[in-house]
Amino acid sequence: MNLEELARQFRKLPGVGPRTAEKMAYAWLTMEHREAEEFISTLEKFRRNIRFCDRCHNLTVNQDLCDICRDPRREKSIVVVESPQDVENIEQAGIYHGYYHVLHGLVSPRRGVTPQDLFIDDLVERITKEGIKEVIIATSFTLEGDLTADYVARRLRGLDVPVYRIGTGLPVGGELNYADKATLRAAFITRQKVGDQSDQEGHNG
Ligand SMILES: [Zn+2]
């Protein structure tokens, strides 16, 4: 048993290199006993009780609906994102006060992910059922993010709801995960309506 063995565990986390992992391992070893116990019990609790919200598929602890879906004061809009991490980032930025819908992935021919693998069908249902007034697609500006945004926008065509995509506040090829608050804010402000010009198939419901 040595520090290296412990550091290897920390390195499993994203963004943790060997140096940081070693620091974390040392901090963990020298942490006060009670604090360390709390750390372990929190890790265990989340691992055991975490699940996905029945409605928006965001993370939730021990309840069917997440805190956001349970809040009736939010605006009747939905931001469509790839992962629960995106929800967290947007919430932290404090730029949006509606609901979310987490797809849990992006359409990817390369990785064999089809729209049927994502939570898209129930997004369509939600819009009518919940009286949603606006949808904002906030997938990354990558090939996969674009494919997904196009597909979602096409599925929502014909519903009586305006659909937007977040704007170019994000760099091309940019992943939403890494956007800072200011960039994220710019992306929301510069959002653009989808499907107005290029809607050649017409509205067929
Ligand atoms: Zn939810």
Low-confidence stretches: 197-205
CATH A-level architecture of the largest domain: 3-Layer(aba) Sandwich
Strand order of the largest sheet: 4-3-5-6-7
Bound molecules: zinc ion
Report Rg. Answer: 20 Å
CATH class of the largest domain: Alpha Beta
Number of domains: 2
Strand coverage percent: 5-15%
Give the CATH topology of the largest domain.
Dna Topoisomerase Vi A Subunit, Chain: A, domain 2
User: Span between N and C termini?
Assistant: 64 Å
Number of E-state strands: 7
* Shape field: globular
- Total of DSSP H or I helical runs spanning 4+ residues: 7
Biggest β-sheet, characterized? 5 strands, mixed
The topology string of helices and strands comes to: HHHEEEHEHEHEHE
Helix content: 25-40%
What value does the average pLDDT take?
Answer: 88
- Based on secondary structure, the structural category is alpha/beta
Task: Kindly describe this structure.
With 205 residues, this protein is an alpha/beta fold. The chain folds into 2 domains: 3-49, Helicase, Ruva Protein, domain 3, CATH 1.10.8.420; 75-193, 3-Layer(aba) Sandwich (Dna Topoisomerase Vi A Subunit, Chain: A, domain 2), CATH 3.40.1360.10. It has 7 helices and 7 strands. Strands 4-3-5-6-7 form a 5-stranded mixed beta sheet. A two-stranded antiparallel sheet has the order 1-2. The radius of gyration is 20 Å and the shape is globular. The relative contact order is 0.10. Residues 197-205 have low confidence and may be disordered. The chain binds zinc ion (ZN). Zinc ion (ZN) binds at residues 53, 55-56, 58, 65-66, 68-69.
